[in-house]
Structures are given as C-alpha cells and as structure tokens.
Design a protein that fits this description.
The protein has helices at about 5-10, 35-40, 40-55, 90-105, 135-140, 170-175, 190-205, 210-215, 245-255, 270-275, 345-355, and strands at about 60-65, 70-75, 85, 225, 240-245, 260, 265, 280, 290-295, 295-305, 305-315, 320-325, 330-335. By secondary structure, the protein is an alpha+beta fold.
Length: about 350
C-alpha cells in the first residue's frame, strides 16, 4: 500500500492504521479497531483502497465501515476531507423514514396504517384532497400511494418539477389526484417522502430540518448538516441532505442498534424491525438494483465470501449508498458525486461487494 495512503489513514484514525483508539465526538464510544480484529482480510481491503485512489474518475468521495459499533475503515478521496459535508441526494428519503420513527416514538403520529388525510388539519389545509383518506402512511413509505406522480414522468402532476420551485409546497402536493388504487403499484416519486416530511412539520410545529437537528442529529453527535428548506420553512424531505460520510454511517448504526443511541431510545425497536423487514417486490425494471423496497429503504440478499447475507440500503443519485447488515452489525457508507455518470451506482455496489467479500 502506498506510504501516503497509510499516512492519511493514520491521520484520520481509520481502522487501517492498525491502532485502536476511542472517540466520544459522536456521543457514544465509537472506538477504532484493526481490519484483522474486525474480521477483514487486510490485503483485500488495501488492494481496494489502492484501486479507488487509482481510478480515473475523481468523483468518489468517502468510504466508512463500522462493525460491532467499532470504526474499521474511514477513507476519503480526491481532495474530499473527513469533515466536509456531501449531498447524499435521495438517500435523504431513508433519513425521512427514520424521522417518521422518531415522530411516532414521540406520539406525534399514531401508526403506519393512519390515513394521509388525517395527518393534516382541515382547518389549516381546507383544500386537501378527500381521496387522501384512502392512502395509508405505509403506502407512502412503500411508494405505492396511487397518486398521479412519477419521478420519471414530468407529465404527471405530482412530479417534483411541478412543485419544487414553489415558495410553498403544501397546498399543491395535498391536491394531487389518485391515478390507481393505493397499495397496488410501486411508482418511485419524490412526493411520498415530501408528504411525510410535511406531516411531521405540521405535528411538531418545526421545519423537518430543525426537527431532525434536535431529535436525531444532535443525539448522534451530527453537527454539520445542510438540508434544503424553502421560503415557507418546508424541508425537502426527498433529498438534498448534506452530511459527512461518517455521519451518514451513524444513521445506519442507529438501525443496527434497534433505534438506540447510547442510553437513549430514539426510535422504537418495533419500528426499526418493520423498516428492516418490510419488503415490497420491485418491478422487473428494477431487478438489477435491488430485490425489494420498503419504508424508503432497498432490500437485497446476496452471497459474499460464501455466505448469504440479507441487507438493506439507502441510495442516492451519484452513487451514494448506506448499506446496513443488522445480523452482522455492519454499516458501510459510500459517498460519491458521480451525478449522472453511468458508472455511479455500479461502482458503489462494486466497492461495497469487495468490502463484504473481504470478510473472513
């Protein structure tokens, strides 16, 4: 391995340094361990890191691996620093799902079968579509609301291009017509997390950005955050959330720890169990990306190092992935700014697979 990579690893206190240290910066004792102690093959991981440095595309940003609540790998590339926040794009949808769990833990929202109409006050929203009574909260989470909205079709009234430039999104998105029966068809659309974000904002009296900062990010020791919020103090719950790679990984760690951080139960374990196990089969056109989808997280099963592994992951445009393997208590965060590049997701998948194949 190149000497300058080893120096960088030592400077950033990664598991590649071979020396265990501890840090309370994150609000919990997240110590570092060597690759060997964590059960990874050192030669395989060092070869992977060399390969990332040598790739001709200079838009890969960071790789963080945590196992058993210990930091194993923290590497950053191409002038991207460990404390630089990065746009994780649609992986922010998965963070919105976690925030819904926080809101339910606090009693702001009842349950996943609550209808969407009931999440909004008619006094505050007199023009809300009555058909929203047919849509359950879980239909939004599974991208199966039946609303006439499709991220890949600008002609649908609920497509983001029709509301993203507005100073106030709420009235518009509460009036989208139904196109099909709720719960039947998977259609990827930004309106789904946006509606959940708006519901949390109405229930809490705070922007989703401020609610997240107080109820989720601060307990996790996440201090550097940017989340796009419009002129009406409504946060873009569908994405455009900026975090460091390590802070991105902490969100996955919250899932492996069943919603608990230190001694604080931030999200109820039953909600985390639903988040992990809710699996809606994806259409054939999505078959190469993941096996299933549920609660704004993708779900897959693959064989690594001769062992079949179930995992879930958040995914954002450009190759931003947060992979969580609850059974093995492994979290892998990958950040990339290959926005629009044909290799973006494929490269991130390949890096993740090489990490998992390095497990002994």
């Amino acid at each position: 391995m190149k000497k300058w990579i080893l120096i960088s690893s030592l400077f950033f206190l990664t598991g590649l340094s071979g020396k265990a240290q501890s840090s309370n910066e994150s609000g919990m004792n997240l110590s570092t361990v060597t690759l060997e102690e964590a059960g990874f093959n050192r030669d395989s991981i060092e070869t992977l890191i060399d390969l990332i440095y040598e790739t001709p595309h200079k838009d890969f940003r960071g790789l963080v691996v945590i196992k058993d609540n210990k930091l194993v790998i923290q590497e950053h590339f191409n002038t991207y620093m460990w404390n630089t926040i990065h746009d994780i794009r649609s992986a922010g949808k998965s963070v919105t799902a976690l925030l819904l769990g926080v809101a339910m833990q606090e009693g702001l929202i009842q349950n996943l079968n609550q209808n969407v109409h009931s999440l909004f006050s008619e006094a505050q929203n007199p023009s809300i579509n009555e058909e929203y009574k047919k849509i359950r909260l879980r239909d939004l989470l599974d991208m199966s609301s039946g609303l006439d909205a499709d991220s890949d079709d600008w002609r649908t009234p609920g497509q983001a291009s029709n509301w993203i430039s507005l100073d106030d999104w709420k009235e518009y998105v509460l009036n989208i017509p139904l196109k099909s029966k709720p719960g039947e068809n998977f259609v990827y659309a930004d309106i789904h997390p946006l509606l959940i974000g708006l519901a949390i904002e109405e229930a809490s009296g705070m922007s989703l950005k401020d609610y997240a900062q107080k109820k989720l990010f601060e307990p996790l020791g996440v201090n550097q955050v940017y989340w796009f919020t419009n002129a009406s103090n409504q946060t873009g719950a569908a994405g455009n959330l900026y975090l460091t790679t390590l802070d991105f990984a902490k969100l996955g760690l919250l899932v492996t720890n069943e919603g608990k951080w230190n001694n604080q139960q931030i999200i109820h374990p039953d909600y985390i169990e639903s988040l992990i196990n809710t699996k809606r089969p994806l259409p054939e056109s999505w078959s190469g990306f993941a096996d299933a989808y549920g609660m704004f997280w993708y779900k897959s099963t693959k064989t690594f190092a001769g062992k079949e592994i179930d995992y879930l992951f958040a995914s954002g445009f450009g190759g931003n992935h947060l992979v969580v393997i609850p059974e093995k208590e492994i979290v892998i965060a990958v950040t990339s700014s290959a926005y629009g590049a044909p290799y973006s997701h494929g490269r991130s998948f390949a890096i993740t697979y090489k990490v998992l194949n390095a497990l002994k």
